[in-house]
Write a structure and sequence with these properties.
With 411 residues, the chain is an alpha+beta fold. The chain contains 16 helices and nine strands. A hairpin with a 3-residue loop joins strand 3 and strand 4. InterPro entries: Kinase-like_dom_sf (IPR011009), Prot_kinase_dom (IPR000719), Ser-Thr/Tyr_kinase_cat_dom (IPR001245), Ser/Thr_kinase_AS (IPR008271), Ser/Thr_Kinases-Pseudokinases (IPR051681).
Length: 411
């Protein structure tokens, strides 16, 4: 479903004399949005394109305008808590000389800047797995739309951090629309080079006409592995290689970034990153599976790490949790259902019943059914489904789910 971007012309004003960020395609200004004279002023960011007619010939100009409009249409469609929301557009803020008549884009203002800046400038610890999961969920959402959308330029610089420290994926190909056009060299090359370190091997191979291949979900997965590396190592991919042509050569030779020195990355997470960097796109992990495995890693960490909030809850009330979980697992309903949950198919049936009970607000029954399904997945060594079921159980019974996980995987 396409959403229509609001026309905010006349309701937004710039508050500074210079932009606070510049890019190859647009300048970013601080702005204020006033819906009504009596309503509070909302702080916003204004993305003002500065694609100029003097850089482009007739057909090239039409191509740029067409692609920019298509990307703006794409952004209008996206509704996700980890995607930067497009509030609307303005037609009266583009003051760049010779500028094409393109609308400025009004977005949420993210005072903590890009993820790349945030990782370097803020000393407080972050929940890296939660951050990775949230970003992945936005990409999964895009990939699984009825008309799937590929981001094509995933990197920490294109992920913003909101005031409540929520990651927001941004830059949906607006600069890419320009740099993939036939605009003269020098106008687009620098922007294109800026993403070389995140690009998968197949994107470095041109066809017989010299055109690069299209971005795909698999190329997004490769780039996402590089984003994980940025989060874990606080440095750009291939940081040990200065010149980008050498990066391309390393990628084409089948190399992947080495394990960062003086940085601790969990072996399971590093192994998952390697699955993002398979040379064959068909062999790379899907973003859906990647997100599920991040869920599992996060859950295992929270259970095993006493310093985490979930770990503290589980340790502080272990005796009561053991009593409650034992009563749940030994209840007549659970025992009866366990007879039919020896296969994944039966476990799925029980899980469907649990979801129905939860929807009907029958918490006791939902708790029992979720516990049974989780036990069946655990006995079948189906860790991903087990973690997903426990995540749903947590909505019903957060303290109990931790101990159930321990009982099932230690038995």
């Amino acid at each position: 479903m396409e959403h229509v971007a609001l026309d905010l012309t006349g309701l937004v004003r710039k508050v500074d004399s210079t932009p606070f960020a510049r890019g190859g395609f647009a300048d970013i200004w601080m702005g204020e949005l006033s819906w009504l004279i009596t309503s509070p002023v909302q702080q916003v960011a204004i993305k003002v394109p500065h694609v100029t007619s003097k850089h482009l010939r007739g057909t090239e100009r039409q191509e740029v305008e067409r692609r920019l409009e298509r990307e703006l249409k794409t952004w209008r469609m996206l509704r996700h808590p980890n995607i930067l929301p497009l509030l609307g557009t303005c037609k009266d803020l583009g003051t760049f000389p010779f500028a094409l008549p393109l609308p400025s884009m009004i977005t949420e203002y993210c005072p903590l800047g890009t993820l790349a800046d945030y990782l370097v400038e803020h000393d407080e610890p972050i929940d890296d797995l939660a951050m990775i999961h949230d970003i992945a969920s936005a990409i999964v959402y895009m990939h699984e739309l009825d008309s799937p959308i590929v981001h094509g330029d995933l990197k920490a610089e294109n992920i913003l951090i909101s005031k409540n420290r929520t990651p927001r994926v941004s830059d949906f190909g607006l600069s890419r629309a320009v740099k993939n056009s036939d605009a003269p060299t020098g106008y687009t090359t620098s922007s294109f080079h800026g993403s070389m370190r995140w690009m998968s091997p197949e994107l470095h191979q041109a066809d017989d006409n010299g055109r690069p291949p299209p971005f795909t979900p698999a190329s997004d997965t490769w780039a996402f592995g590089m984003v994980i590396l940025e989060i874990e190592a606080c440095e750009i991919p291939w940081s040990h290689i200065i010149h980008e042509p050498a990066v391309i050569l390393a990628v084409m030779r089948g190399n992947t970034p080495p394990l960062p020195k003086n940085k601790t990355i969990a072996p399971a997470l590093w192994a998952l990153m390697q699955e993002c960097w398979k040379q064959d796109p068909a062999e790379r992990v899907s973003m859906r599976d990647l997100m599920s495995r991040i869920d599992l890693l996060k859950f295992q960490r929270d259970v095993q790490d006493p310093s985490s909030p979930i770990g503290q809850r589980s340790l502080s009330s272990s005796s009561s949790i053991r009593s409650r979980s034992s009563s749940i697992l030994s209840s007549p309903v659970t025992q009866a259902l366990s007879l039919e949950s020896n296969s994944i198919h039966d476990a799925d049936t029980v899980l469907a019943r649990a979801r129905r009970a939860f929807t009907q607000r029958d918490a006791p029954l939902a708790r029992q059914l979720y516990s049974t399904a989780a036990a069946a997945f655990a006995s079948a060594s189906h860790q991903l489904r087990h973690a997903q079921t426990l995540a749903e159980l947590a909505r019903v019974d957060k303290p109990n789910v931790v101990h159930i996980w321990k009982l099932q995987w230690k038995s």
